[in-house]
């Protein structure tokens, strides 16, 4: 029997990602996988008669064998898992990787090299709590895509920061305008993309930086493999920055990762790789 699955987006994100959605559905048909696009807003989760329940448009719905969850909602993903639905990515990945403080906390236990980091206290930002000299980096814990990331050069920069949902992390800066995204599927490294900017300390391709394919060294591959052998990822982007001596420093892990840059630089079909991984696990 062909595996049945849900592809779940928020309705707003679905509009922006229609090309990617079409790509997933097309590849699924080629692989004899039945995948249905559904919107997070149409679901209700809770418990009824002391049993966990999920409703779609206020009605019971037949549950799939798997779900590709392309929205950030670890509670929702956990509900699906408790109802027996295999989720990609898992609720654990969603919880850790969409919180920069939790990402660094988890990876520090593994001894993964990272820039020195202070986990902020609550939603407020108080420069007097920062133990680093200027300049330093302030990041909103839940920020994505290079947004809500600030280079603080002096006290005036601190005054420009407002409260953030979930708080901030504070880091010593790495080499400006250069980072690396490693695309992974399951336990496999698919490709690495070097992103650089001549005009900004952030190198995100979507923010105007340039990009090129990058060959990982043996030492760099070892670091990536240590990460992916500890957590069961479906598909993710593991982002690194570089220290002054050129070595890797883990920056963050993208749960709901996009692949526009990889598609622009290569003919790698990462969506097909992802669906084949899901199909093999099922």
From TrEMBL:
UniProt GO molecular function: ATP binding; metal ion binding; ribosomal S6-glutamic acid ligase activity
Signal peptide from the UniProt entry: none
GO CC terms of this entry: cytoplasm
Coiled coil segments of this chain: none
Entry keywords, A to Z: ATP-binding, Nucleotide-binding
PROSITE patterns the record matches: ATP_GRASP
InterPro entries: ATP-grasp, ATP-grasp_RimK-type
Biological-process GO terms, alphabetical: SOS response
Entry keyword Zinc: no
Domain named ATP-grasp: residues: 104-279
Pfam families: RimK
Nuclease among keywords: no
Name this polypeptide is given: ATP-grasp domain-containing protein
Native organism: Peribacillus cavernae
């Amino acid at each position: 029997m062909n595996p049945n699955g849900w592809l779940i987006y928020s309705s707003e994100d679905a509009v922006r990602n229609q090309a990617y959605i079409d790509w997933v559905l097309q590849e699924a048909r080629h692989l004899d996988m039945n995948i249905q696009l559904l919107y997070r807003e149409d679901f209700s989760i809770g418990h009824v008669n002391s049993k966990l329940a999920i409703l779609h448009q206020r009605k019971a719905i037949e549950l799939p064998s798997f779900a590709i969850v392309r929205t950030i909602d670890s509670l929702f993903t956990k509900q699906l898992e408790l109802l027996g639905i295999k989720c990609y990515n898992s609720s654990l990945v969603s919880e850790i990787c969409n919180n920069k403080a939790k990402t660094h906390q988890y990876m520090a236990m593994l001894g993964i090299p990272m820039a020195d980091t202070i986990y902020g206290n609550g939603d407020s930002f108080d420069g007097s709590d920062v133990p680093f000299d200027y300049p330093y980096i302030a990041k909103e814990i839940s920020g994505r895509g290079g947004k809500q990331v600030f280079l603080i050069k002096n006290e005036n920069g601190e005054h420009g920061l407002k409260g953030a949902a979930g708080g901030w992390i504070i880091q010593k800066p790495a080499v400006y305008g250069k980072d690396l995204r490693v695309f992974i599927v399951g336990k496999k490294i698919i490709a690495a993309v070097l992103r650089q900017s001549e005009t900004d300390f952030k190198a995100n391709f979507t923010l105007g930086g340039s990009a090129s394919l990058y060959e990982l060294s043996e030492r760099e591959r070892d670091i990536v493999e240590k990460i992916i052998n500890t957590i069961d990822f479906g598909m993710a982007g593991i982002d690194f920055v570089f220290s002054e001596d050129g070595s890797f420093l883990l920056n963050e892990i993208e749960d709901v990762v996009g692949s526009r840059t990889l598609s622009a630089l290569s003919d790698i079909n990462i969506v097909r790789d992802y669906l084949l991984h899901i199909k093999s696990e099922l």
